[in-house]
UniProtKB/TrEMBL annotation, chain A:
UniProt subcellular location: Cytoplasm; Nucleus
Keywords, ordered alphabetically: Cytoplasm, Nucleus
Organism: Huiozyma naganishii (strain ATCC MYA-139 / BCRC 22969 / CBS 8797 / KCTC 17520 / NBRC 10181 / NCYC 3082 / Yp74L-3) (Yeast)
Xref: InterPro entries: Trm112 (IPR039127), Trm112-like (IPR005651)
GO cellular component terms, A-Z: cytoplasm; eRF1 methyltransferase complex; nucleus; tRNA (m2G10) methyltransferase complex
Domain of life: Eukaryota
Main localization category: cytoplasm
GO terms for MF: protein heterodimerization activity; protein methyltransferase activity; rRNA (guanine) methyltransferase activity; tRNA (guanine(10)-N2)-methyltransferase activity
Similarity comment: family membership: Belongs to the TRM112 family.
Gene: KNAG0D00220
UniProt-recorded name of the protein: Multifunctional methyltransferase subunit trm112
GO BP field: maturation of LSU-rRNA; maturation of SSU-rRNA; rRNA (guanine-N7)-methylation; tRNA methylation; tRNA wobble uridine modification
Taxonomic classification: Eukaryota, Fungi, Dikarya, Ascomycota, Saccharomycotina
Signal sequence interval, chain numbering: none
From TrEMBL, chain B:
GO molecular function, a single term: tRNA binding
Family under the similarity heading: Belongs to the class I-like SAM-binding methyltransferase superfamily. TRM11 methyltransferase family.
Protein's cellular compartments: Cytoplasm
Protein name as it appears in the record: tRNA (guanine(10)-N(2))-methyltransferase
Species assigned in the record: Huiozyma naganishii (strain ATCC MYA-139 / BCRC 22969 / CBS 8797 / KCTC 17520 / NBRC 10181 / NCYC 3082 / Yp74L-3)
Chain coiled-coil ranges: none
Organism classification: Eukaryota, Fungi, Dikarya, Ascomycota, Saccharomycotina
GO biological process assignments: tRNA methylation
Gene name, Swiss-Prot/TrEMBL: KNAG0A01360
Length: 135, 436
């Protein structure tokens, strides 16, 4: 499961939708195995589009749980048009590409901050199914 | 405006117009379908420029190519007359007269293969064009194409001589070769429910999947639509309640291996083991396009999370294994219960109108009746405009592609959600028919 996906997943339990704590899920760094795939090609325009969909605070929070505290607290300001990217902008995007797209959690656990339910990531695939009493 | 000749594939005729119209809309091109003949592979359209023609056809699967239209006729003599008498002839000719070129022959319905001497004789007939560039068979700047249309005498035979000739300057080959590239036979991972390459690409085109946007398939299975969406440049994410399906058969035979083979790993986000009706994609995440083939109940029955018999599971959440509730075990497999297709599609429509941007498209397949009495009624939601329904016929059944556009809460279209639409389970009908 790519680190970017952590930014898209909330708790499956419907009752948690009324809470603000069902996103992002909580990742226990010590239990998460990370793998990097350097073969995934970098495309600045594609990254720009993806960043538009990202909730930055959640990225910062999850990434620090996974053991990287180096992210700026506010979302980098980048031009909307890929043609206007400066060299510095490209470096930022490349770093984010490495972090969000190239890095995957292959094994791990994620926990809802509201209900406490734990979901597993196995063989890089997160399992978001629920037992009957939570469904 | 100039005239362009579209040369289309003579397959999936029910889908061709929807594909062209969607690609035209995507490219901001206005196409007048008044002269469109759904049965013919040829269509002369008015477009502003070569660039527009390219934008229209570049992604098309059901079109073969587009040509700047120079003329047509029932025989070569009439063709030459038509080419030289059509308005704009000199302008068309002079603009490219110095470019390197070659001639190409296309053959519609004909079995007769012209040999080199015949071809040269025909090409010589075009000397009046005054093409002064060099002939370049490998990388010509211009390709002049003669399309010879033969007539069909019966299912086996065709006429010896062409009935109609069309001539033009090649502008753009379509994306039709992608169906070879993505052919299921050559795909590292696929299964019995994998959707074939051609119509999954057509589906992505009609759904207007755009580069750099997010596409979601809530019933991803082996990921056929994810591949099609990735092919058109979207970041794709899928989910399926059946974890075995999306897991595949090891690192070299799973959905991610497919993306690797096609060189588009960067567009594959993830597949999630998830029940669509208990969705974990966060509220507020903009999903630009939803494309899927929901379970019909033929090869795969429709299941969602929950106990079929809740009493049996009462108190089970208190069962402990190694000091931890059993349902929090890494290998715990939750129970599932049956669900109806109508209810599932209602959920899908509701999800689409909550998550898609205004103008965003939902495209999915569902079974229909094949001349029998069983009706599956097309589901309708007040906020979604039903833009297309295109039917694909099989021997014993048929299915249709439904494409909706999210028009938002002020649209107030017809609705039939929340009611029981189909009276009999499709699965029963399918098997009772097949066993007859």
């Amino acid at each position: 499961m790519k680190v970017l996906t952590t930014n898209f997943l909330k708790c499956s339990v419907k009752a948690c939708d009324v809470s603000n704590d069902n996103f992002p899920l909580q990742y226990e760094g010590a239990k998460c195995q990370l793998v990097q795939n350097e073969n995934i090609e970098f495309n600045p325009e594609f990254m720009l589009n993806i960043l538009e969909r990202v909730e930055w605070d959640a990225v910062v929070r999850v990434v620090s749980e996974l053991g990287n505290a180096g992210l700026p607290t506010t979302k980098p300001e980048l031009p909307a048009d890929a043609d206007q990217l400066s060299e510095e902008d490209i470096i930022i995007l490349r770093d984010l590409h490495t972090l969000l797209i190239q890095t995957s959690i292959t094994e791990g656990e994620m926990k809802c901050r509201n209900c406490g339910h734990i979901y597993f990531i196995k063989n890089s695939i997160p399992n978001l199914l629920l037992p009957p009493h939570l469904a | 405006m100039k005239e362009y000749l579209l040369y289309m594939a003579q397959v999936h005729l029910n889908f061709r117009r929807a594909e062209l119209e969607s690609l035209a809309d995507l490219g901001g091109i206005s196409l007048d379908f008044a002269s469109y003949d759904p049965e013919s592979p040829f269509w002369v359209v008015q477009l502003e420029s070569d660039d527009q023609a390219r934008a229209l056809v570049k992604r098309s699967i059901l079109t073969k190519a587009v040509f700047e239209y120079w003329g047509s006729g029932p025989d070569y003599e009439s063709l030459h007359r038509d080419v030289q008498s059509r308005p704009g002839y000199d302008e068309r000719r002079i603009r490219v007269a110095q470019d390197s070129f070659k001639f190409e022959f296309e053959n519609y319905h004909g079995k007769h293969k012209r040999d080199m001497s015949e071809k040269i004789r025909i090409i010589d007939g075009f000397q009046y064009l005054g093409l002064e560039g060099t002939i370049d068979l490998k990388k010509p700047k211009q390709m002049y194409t003669i399309i010879e249309e033969y007539g069909r005498i019966n299912s086996q035979e065709t006429t010896d001589e062409p009935l109609r000739l069309r001539f033009g300057r090649h502008v753009q080959t379509s994306d039709r070769s992608a169906m070879d590239l993505l052919d299921l036979k050559k795909r590292p991972y696929c299964g019995t429910t994998s959707f074939e390459a051609e119509l999954s690409l057509v589906t992505a085109n009609i759904a207007q999947v755009k580069p750099g946007t997010l596409m979601y398939d809530p019933f991803a299975g082996t990921g056929s639509f994810l591949v099609a969406g990735g092919h058109y440049g979207a970041l794709v994410v899928g989910s399926d309640i059946d974890g075995r399906m999306i897991r595949g058969k090891g690192a070299n035979a799973n959905i991610s291996a497919n993306f690797k083979k096609y060189g588009m790993e960067g567009r594959f986000l993830d597949v999630l083991t998830m029940d669509f009706t208990h969705n974990s994609l966060r509220t507020g995440l903009p999903i630009d396009t939803i494309v899927c083939d929901p379970p019909y109940g033929i090869r795969e029955s429709i299941k969602i999370l929950g106990a079929r018999d809740p009493e049996k599971f009462e108190g089970k959440e208190k069962v402990m294994i190694d000091g931890r509730p059993s349902y929090l075990n890494r290998d715990y497999i939750p129970t599932k219960k049956p669900y109806s297709l109508d209810a599932l599609l209602d959920d899908l429509l509701q999800f689409a109108c909550e998550r898609l941007p205004l103008g965003g498209r939902l495209a999915f397949w569902m079974p229909t009746a094949n001349g029998e009495n069983l009706e599956t009624v097309i589901p309708l939601h007040g906020n979604l405009e039903l833009k297309y329904h295109c039917t694909q016929e099989f021997n014993k059944w048929a299915r249709r592609l439904l494409v909706y556009i999210n028009r938002g809460p002020n649209y107030h279209g017809p609705t039939n959600t929340g009611v029981k639409r189909s009276s009999k389970a499709f699965r029963d009908h399918y098997f009772s028919n097949a066993n007859r």
